Amino acid sequence: xxxxxxxxxWLIPLSFSVAVVWAIALGGxxxxxxxLESPRPTETQPAAILATRTAAPLPVRQTAAIATQPPTETxxxxxxxxxxxSSPPPPSATGVTPQATASPAYDTLAPTVGKTSSATxxxxxxxxxxxxxxxxxxxxxxxxxATPVPTARPSPTQAPPCSTGKxxxxxxxxxxxxxxxxxxxxxxxxxxxxxxxxxxxxALSPDGLxxxxxxxxxxxxxxxxxxxxxxxxxxxxxDNSQPAEGPAWSSAGDRIVFTGWDDPTSAFNISTxxxxxxxxxxxTTDEVNRYSPDWSxxxxxxxxxxxxxxFDLTTEIFIIPxxxxxxxxxxxxxxxxxxxxxxx
Length: 344
Description:
By secondary structure, this protein is an alpha+beta fold. The protein has helices at about 5-35, 45-55; strands at about 65, 130, 165-170, 180, 190, 200-205, 210-220, 220-230, 235, 245-250, 255-260, 265-275, 280, 290-295, 300-305, 315-320, 330. The strands form 5 sheets. The chain has a 4-stranded antiparallel beta sheet with strand order 6-7-8-9, with no helix packed on it. The protein has a 4-stranded antiparallel beta sheet with strand order 10-11-12-13, with no helix packed on it. A 4-stranded antiparallel beta sheet has the order 14-15-16-17, with no helix packed on it.
């Protein structure tokens, strides 16, 4: 075999292989050139897409409700169906016959506030008409909405202060405790007593013309005193032999109840007397103190407070007949009950 034939035997396949490689390389370069020539997306494209999405109305999910009217055959604007005996719809310009379509009720869009939309899922006489409505109420706090102003509540009418009568009380504004009176509107402050010692626990008579109180004016022993409402005509009612305090007038204004020290029992007990100090009558003879007596409206009972016995540690409320008898406890508990007052 000649050498030239051997060379051509290998040169032809090699040339074909080189041609294939060049063809592949040129094709890749052309594809790369087309990619480089295509425009790149700009930074404004996402904003434009976002603006388009923002401008599009949001779908409002609606709830379908079966209408109370009888079934109708009114065709829905979103669906066309063939009725018996009717001709089929004409083909479109593209030669394709449109198909009946129905959108679910919750896919219906309601871009306008308060707009009512309806959809009939099937155009059949046996299927009732489905109607739905959705009303969107704008929030009062939405941007641009007027701020709601709360309705002002009318203030309660304040009753004018009582303009009749006077209030009597004890005060140490003069150095020691004396009696004063004042009108219900805070005017007319008047000093009633001005004597050494403590004048306390004043009680006005039912007609408001007299005052009874207890004072320590002699021997530092508390006595019951009586005077006119303006402080004139002061009279000592008890005899200063034993402490007495807490006077209260009967409804008739002819007797006074008070609590006084009792030597035999070594305790304060309840007694009554005439307004001049005569005809004393002791109602209780207990070994424990009795305080703050008060009359019933019919002047037949007295209420007071104190310990049930020397073995008890909490005070209770009692009543006892003025004619005499046993005191009856009205309360019985583990708490201190004090200072009763009988309503008129």
